[in-house]
Amino acid sequence: MEHMDARTAIGLGAASGPARIAGPGEAIGPDEAALAGRNHGLPLEALRYDITPPGLHYVLTHYDIPPGDSHAWRLTVGGLVEEPLSLDVAALRSFPTVTHRVTMECAGNGRGLLDPRPVSQPWLDGGVGTADWTGVPLHILLAVAGVRPGAAEVVFTGADHGVERGVEQDYQRSLPMAAAMAGDPEVLVAYAMNGSPLPPQHGYPLRLIVPGWYGMASVKWLRAIEVSAVPFEGYHQASSYVFRRSEDDPGTPLTRIRPRALMVPPGFPDFMSRTRVVRSGPVFLTGRAWSGHAPVASVEISSDDGRTWHEADLDAPGRHHWAWRSWRTVWTAAPGLHTLGVRATDTHGNTQPLRPEWNTGGYGNNAVQRVPVVCLDE
Amino acid sequence: MEHMDARTAIGLGAASGPARIAGPGEAIGPDEAALAGRNHGLPLEALRYDITPPGLHYVLTHYDIPPGDSHAWRLTVGGLVEEPLSLDVAALRSFPTVTHRVTMECAGNGRGLLDPRPVSQPWLDGGVGTADWTGVPLHILLAVAGVRPGAAEVVFTGADHGVERGVEQDYQRSLPMAAAMAGDPEVLVAYAMNGSPLPPQHGYPLRLIVPGWYGMASVKWLRAIEVSAVPFEGYHQASSYVFRRSEDDPGTPLTRIRPRALMVPPGFPDFMSRTRVVRSGPVFLTGRAWSGHAPVASVEISSDDGRTWHEADLDAPGRHHWAWRSWRTVWTAAPGLHTLGVRATDTHGNTQPLRPEWNTGGYGNNAVQRVPVVCLDE
């Protein structure tokens, strides 16, 4: 029998367990409640704003919000480049800048509606928001640094540090060279949101913005950009943010946002059930629709829980290709209980399912929103 | 046997149930998750900021955030007054204004830690924030309108409308005349937060600010102020926001904020468990402390789950009587599992219990924060 040290070493496992799927009927636990208390979604009535005001745009922070000192901050550009860069915020802002209006959605939006539920941030519908992001196109920074032959990917490192499923890490993600260098969607190193410096929770002082992709790609508190000859295999690239039907499925990495439409819930709510109350007669319905794959082609409404549908009026496409579009219609409410729904279809034919497509991480659930409404008998 | 109409009338009860206490071991349900997804607490690392940046200050909205049009908005001052007022935002801003730095805490902060848990917004520790609020002292508006003899209370009505436990209502609260007319704490009709117009979720364009009181008193989206000869008996005055040990306890209304200290959790977190990880040696601990009853007199720290305590260094009181104060100390971490705690005591001798004081609404739980920490063996 081998000698065992009486003193048991204490390691990261004491803080960090493996990924877990909730048991049948298992309700939300204290760990999920702690995440839900820190992070927040868009209150759906805020779909009324073209640009989501600060504090209403969804936020998902993996670890702590780092204390960002914009004077001391340095962004490095290195790896497989001719001339590595180290830029302070002022130096970054001296490059040509652009502003893009972008609808960003959390890859886990809708996770809390899956059954069984992967245990993580228990989003319902609200993990979304739209902002004007101002910054320097990534392809300009890469051109200045000079990408050398053999480059396969660009790896982005944030200043947020923590442990996840036993792995201590800074938050890191990569993009293939083609996506990093693209002109549309154009990836930005952003320093402003809606014309003001980034709020701390949105990446102050610098973050990546990848229009059309789920939010995990838009690395916050960006401190390093590294051009690499090999595919990045870090935790948030290879372990998380992958669609897997089961634990042994090699899976498909998450990239672009699936189509979704959401409505401003009509009438007024009950505080606790969030069920909506309307009075009979015409009820104006409006909301937003988006897709990271292609322009939205149509938005349809159902007032009978998805059995029948009719088309809503959709705003003409504008100059903001990667932002949500408005839609509107009128529903004639009759006394009783109703379940409203709305679904978007894009020009590539991608649409929304009535029931979620289950996966182990609880990602990309774009099943049709269900809005229970009581129409009063008066 | 009486005749029954075959057609059953549908009323608010179809949307709205009675208050409920969770069963033994009952985890958080979809209704609580919906509230937790809309509302959010202060991520505790944001205790580092004297003034909480927009989007990090806690938010609790009962119904929907109303669409506030600052041009069309009118605030009326009426009831038992000589000369009723109807003010637009510009007219309000023509009165003398002041700025007060105020720490605001939700009355339900800590509810999610009660056992059994009253079913509502499942706050853990984060229902708090500090802001600079600019506005017109309420006593000036009341003096201009001229309070008539016999006034007992002032009733405040917000534009947020919904149903709660079966009652359809605008959000309304009252203050006794003495509190409404006081010079310290001075109640404000505020139009700015941290020097900018109020964000929608914080009451745009106008809200009440009652320094030192739990947040329910600071009515958002304020549209009417009415001086009344009789005590207000509305839902949010007489039914909710009352400490009751049981349903038949007449109870005590909530007013001022109980003392509390919170720490910036040290080291770095595990994503899912939120357990903190540190390495052995000196660990700097810091945070904030406040009380709505009296100045904070001392802050103490425990590293053994409340068995022993030592005093932290507390900032001298400044000119912001109703804002939190900083504290700091150093803890020498040794490998193993630890539970840190911090408690505040005010100059009136009010302090924090180790275990919560249970009440049916889950209000005012200022039990000591518990921060599990793993100190690694390396």
From TrEMBL, chains A, B:
CDD domains: SO_family_Moco_dimer (cd02110). It comes from Yinghuangia aomiensis. This is Sulfite oxidase. The keyword Nucleotide-binding does not apply. Its cofactor is Mo-molybdopterin. PANTHER family: SULFITE OXIDASE, MITOCHONDRIAL, SULFITE REDUCTASE. The keyword Metal-binding applies. Residues 281-373 form the Moybdenum cofactor oxidoreductase dimerisation domain. InterPro entries: Ig_E-set, MoCF_OxRdtse_dimer, Mopterin_OxRdtase_euk, OxRdtase_Mopterin-bd_dom, OxRdtase_Mopterin-bd_sf.
